[in-house]
Amino acid sequence: MGYFPLFVDLKNKKCLIVGGGRIAYRKILALLDFEADITVVAPSVINDIAILKDRIYIQMEEYKEKDLEGAFLTIAATNNSDLNGKIASDCRTRNILVNTVDEIDRCDFLFPAYIKKGNISIGITTSGHSPLMAGYLKKEISENLPDYYEPLIDTLGSCREYVKNTVPEEDKRADIMKELVRIGLENKGCLTETDVQGVILKIVEEGSGK
Ligand SMILES: C[C@@]1(CC(=O)O)C2=NC(=C\c3[nH]c(c(CCC(=O)O)c3CC(=O)O)Cc3[nH]c(c(CC(=O)O)c3CCC(=O)O)/C=C3\N/C(=C\2)[C@@H](CCC(=O)O)[C@]3(C)CC(=O)O)/[C@H]1CCC(=O)O
Ligand SMILES: NC(=O)c1ccc[n+]([C@@H]2O[C@H](COP(=O)([O-])OP(=O)(O)OC[C@H]3O[C@@H](n4cnc5c(N)ncnc54)[C@H](O)[C@@H]3O)[C@@H](O)[C@H]2O)c1
User: Fold this and answer.
1) How many structural domains are present in the chain?
2) Which one of 32, 68, 132, 169 has the largest count of C-beta atoms within 10 Å of its C-beta?
């Protein structure tokens, strides 16, 4: 089996983290990167978590089933395996997605090693076989990702909006975008207004037999 890389919008969605140790902290940092609304429940938290108090809710209490109310997803990140198991089954009863940090069989989803550069998100998993290799792959991919990809993707996003609004035929829009990506890559990220207008004109006219 493998894990499907679903890209989820976490902005302002309640993510509950039970446990306040080093592993919970790593998960919090990842979720903060994607603007989640984070609640931590634990009788004690490490200082790195405590200093995030202006950005996350911290409930200094033991876990209760009631804490799951309104959660979009939950992470069972305590050092008590039985408790993590109970949190996972409480979530399953309530149809809440759960990640359990000490038992892959009790995870609905895994945390990836990820690269986030502007609108680019790359997630890597080894399906639990070697988290260290996932981190190694992340480093390798990141080092080989040209810096101009990020701004080029932003430019292509604006061009795409423009093309969607001005060219009615879907097949032509796809041909135009293909050509813009080709030029953008060839020119190492540089794509001018003249390039865009030139490509649109050429492809629209080709189809009309001019
Ligand atoms: C990717 C990353 C994301 C993150 O944590 O945010 C992540 N683990 C990372 C690091 C890491 N984790 C561990 C080590 C020590 C070395 C080692 O064990 O290899 C290191 C290395 C380090 O700390 O540097 C130990 C470990 N991990 C898990 C268990 C429990 C178990 O296996 O049962 C144990 C205790 C094992 C034991 O008891 O010995 C379980 C999981 N860890 C996952 C994710 C999920 C599968 C991901 C995948 O394989 O694709 C999964 C299944 C669940 C989950 O946590 O979502 C992050 C790298 C981020 C980066 O580099 O960017
Ligand atoms: N998934 C991973 O990447 C990964 C990596 C290494 C270790 N682990 C696993 O993660 C577990 C947690 O590691 P850690 O270093 O963060 O542990 P830790 O001991 O530093 O922290 C445990 C936290 O759980 C909290 N806790 C205990 N009982 C609780 C309760 N009843 N309700 C709420 N919170 C409670 C504690 O207050 C503490 O904040 C380890 O036991 C290990 O099995 C996972």
Assistant:
1) 2
2) 68
Model ipTM? Answer: 0.98
**Residue nearest to ligand 2 atom 2, measured at CA:** 101
Structural domain includes residue 198:
yes
| Helices and strands (H, E) in the chain, number of each type | 7, 7
For residue 51, what are the domain limits? 14-111
140 domain residue, yes or no: no
Q: Whose CA is nearest to atom 18 of ligand 2?
A: 21
Residue at a domain's end among 65, 90, 111:
111
Substitution candidate for ligand 2 out of 16, 26, 79 with most atoms within 8 A of CB:
79
Residue 1 lies in a domain: no
Closest CA to 111 of 76, 141, 142, 82: 76
Instruction: Report pLDDT digits (tens) over 124-164.
Output: 999 999 999 999 999 999 999 999 999 999 999 999 999 99
Is residue 157 domain-shared with residue 104, that is, in the same domain? Answer: no
Using one digit for the tens of pLDDT, what is the confidence trace for 30-60? Answer: 999 999 999 999 999 999 999 999 999 999 9
Nearest ligand 1 atom, CA 103: 33
**Burial letters 82-106, b for 16+ CB under 10 A, else e:** eebbbbbebbeeeebbbbbbeeeeb
Ligand 2 in contact with 189 (CB < 6 A)? no
Pick from 93, 111, 129: which residue ends a domain?
111
pTM here is 0.96
